[in-house]
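Incident review: delayed structure delivery

Summary: a single-chain prediction request sat in the queue longer than the usual turnaround. Root cause was a stuck worker, restarted by the on-call engineer. No data loss occurred. The affected request and its eventual output are reproduced below so the record is complete for anyone auditing the incident later.

Affected input:
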Amino acid sequence: MPVDLFNTKFEQLYNKPAEALATAPGRVNLIGEFTDYNNGFVLPCALEFTTRILFRKRDDNQVIVHSLHYPGECDKFSIDDEISRGDSQWGNYIRAVAYVLKRQGHLLSGVDLLIDSTVPQGSGLSSSAALEVAVGGVFNHLCQLNLSGEEIALLGQEAENDFMNCQCGIMDQLVSANGQKGQALLIDCQSLTTESVAIPEDLSIVIVNSNYPRKLVDSEYNQRRIDCEQAAKKMSIATLRDADIKKLNAARSAMSDNEYKRAHHVITENSRVIKATQALKNNDMPKLRELMTASHQSLRDDFEVTVPETDGLVDICQEALGDKGAVRMTGGGFGGAIVCLCRHSDIDKIKSAVEKHYFSRFNIQASIYVGKAGDGLQVTVL
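Output delivered after worker restart:
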């Protein structure tokens, strides 16, 4: 939707035009799943699918929120009151960011908000992180907080952890805040240092959403984080970043089967991220295929977050691409999407194979997106 039409809708709701626009992207993780909250390495890129928020400062301390995706719904709360969860699930993400900002002692003001988004929800492309980072951008601009992209990302993670009770790592918010067009971002989740890695011009990022309904995601996700923390404790280390296979095997007898498998995934996945970064720099498709295949198998067998639908999509796309592409599950799992790296000329092979085989096997229609690496958070005065 063009900004002028978007602003017209804002004015229809609030009787005044918006003052500024905050835009934050979703992301796709090329490799490095469940390593971020273990202080490991990840290699995501921001996407050109974005969440946009038009906003205007109010004269009072009310925060009033509308979304084009939920017409007729409105969430409203006061900055002056204790901020708690409301009836609107999407509205709670705005409350969550305001909550952590207020907890840190920042002085906030009331604001009118209108949200629109092209980030597919429930697809593992971090629509929630895009919303959190965009809201952080709104308050940062509105209240002149002078926060860096990294600080906004950390606030978004706190909002997810402490208010929404999903124990995610920093990856989603950090790449949404600091992503760069045409680049993947190698993130060291211990130091939060980043390295931009150019995505070769002849390489396409194809995302296939299984559209499998994700269930019990938060509880399963949180349990896996607990398993990782327990495994680290039994190896007498702070986090799995400090682990290796030798330490893992030495402590195996003290671990449950799940703790061992979760740690095995994280340790091997960290190694794969570093190797995949070099393979991406070299535009080395055979190596990317090897590493992404191993990553998916580890997510299926060790971390146990795939479902038959995402496993099936990986098989379908791998068979279609042969040795000309790399495929794996991406995101938090239990449904969601897979990511394929391939040459531009092979995109139609993926589309054809998915259309031919996926519905007949699983009775669900997949959604296919050809993604491009986009910029991170931007705030534009109108």
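Verification: The longest strand covers residues 41-57.
Action items: add queue-age alerting; document worker restart procedure.
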